[in-house]
């Protein structure tokens, strides 16, 4: 089973068809939600429960950036980007943890982060970079916190993709090779399996 989640139902349906055309024999469902709406997080897990789906893997790939200087962004833009890039993934990890605990399941989270985490500050990506660093740090803290409290049924991984071009970032270095990290090949393998 695979649940594709996003705002644009047309794009979700297109992705669903592309996956089917590649020959994967899996049940794919789409769910159109806006992750800038914090009420949508519970709706995901309500959908899972209503459709009797067992979630083994959560892939956080949400994120967006306005290529503007921080001083030029409106408060509304800052709030929306913060919600999408930081609050949504952290909230979904916490909801997933609750789901696993309630159902006595084992699961994994893969945060698809950005190489911007590893770069020097960029004048038009200050907010995005800060939020991605925050996601990286908070997901590591959550993983550490769960383990220190004896909960070992959730593994949290971070991988860093070069989604940003023209910033001088070496996009050939796509993942942290230290223990507890996944390469992009490993990410793809986990998702497909």
Q: Can you walk through the features of this model?
A:
Helix 3 runs parallel beside helix 4. The chain has a three-stranded parallel beta sheet, sandwiched between helices. It has a two-stranded parallel sheet with strand order 1-2. The chain contains five helices and five strands. The protein is globular, with a radius of gyration of 17 Å. With 193 residues, it is of the alpha/beta class. Helix 1 links the parallel strand 1 and strand 2.
List the helices and strands and how they pair.
Layout: E1 2-6, H1 9-21, E2 28-32, H2 40-50, E3 57-60, H3 75-103, E4 107-114, H4 126-148, E5 154-161, H5 184-192
Parallel strand pairs: 1-2, 3-4, 4-5
In short:
44% of the residues lie in helices and 16% in strands. It is of the alpha/beta class.
In helices, the fraction of residues equals 40-55%
Measured by DSSP, the beta-strand proportion falls in: 15-25%
Label the overall shape: globular
Distance between the termini: 10 Å
SSE sequence, one letter per element = EHEHEHEHEH
Low-confidence stretches: 163-185
Q: Number of helix segments?
A: 5
Total count of strands: 5
Widest sheet: strand ordering: 3-4-5
SS-based class: alpha/beta
Mean pLDDT: 81
What is the makeup of the main sheet?
3 strands, parallel
Rg calculated over all Cα atoms: 17 Å
């Amino acid at each position: 089973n695979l649940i594709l989640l996003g705002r644009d139902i047309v794009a979700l349906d297109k992705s669903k068809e592309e996956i089917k055309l590649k020959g994967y024999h899996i049940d794919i469902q789409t769910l159109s939600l806006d992750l800038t709406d914090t009420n949508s997080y519970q709706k995901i897990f309500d959908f899972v429960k209503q459709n009797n789906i067992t979630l083994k893997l959560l892939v956080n790939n949400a994120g967006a950036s306005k290529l503007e200087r921080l001083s030029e962004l409106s408060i509304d833009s800052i709030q929306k980007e913060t919600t999408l890039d930081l609050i949504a993934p952290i909230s979904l990890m916490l909801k997933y943890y609750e789901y696993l605990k309630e159902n006595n399941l084992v699961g994994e989270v893969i945060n698809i982060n950005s190489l911007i985490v590893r770069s020097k500050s960029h004048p038009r990506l200050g907010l995005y970079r800060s939020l991605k660093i925050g996601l990286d740090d908070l997901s590591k803290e959550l993983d550490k916190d769960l383990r220190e409290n004896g909960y070992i049924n959730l593994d949290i991984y971070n991988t860093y993709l070069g989604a940003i071009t023209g910033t001088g970032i070496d996009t050939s270095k796509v993942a942290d090779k230290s223990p507890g990290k996944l390469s992009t090949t490993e990410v793809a393998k986990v998702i497909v399996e």
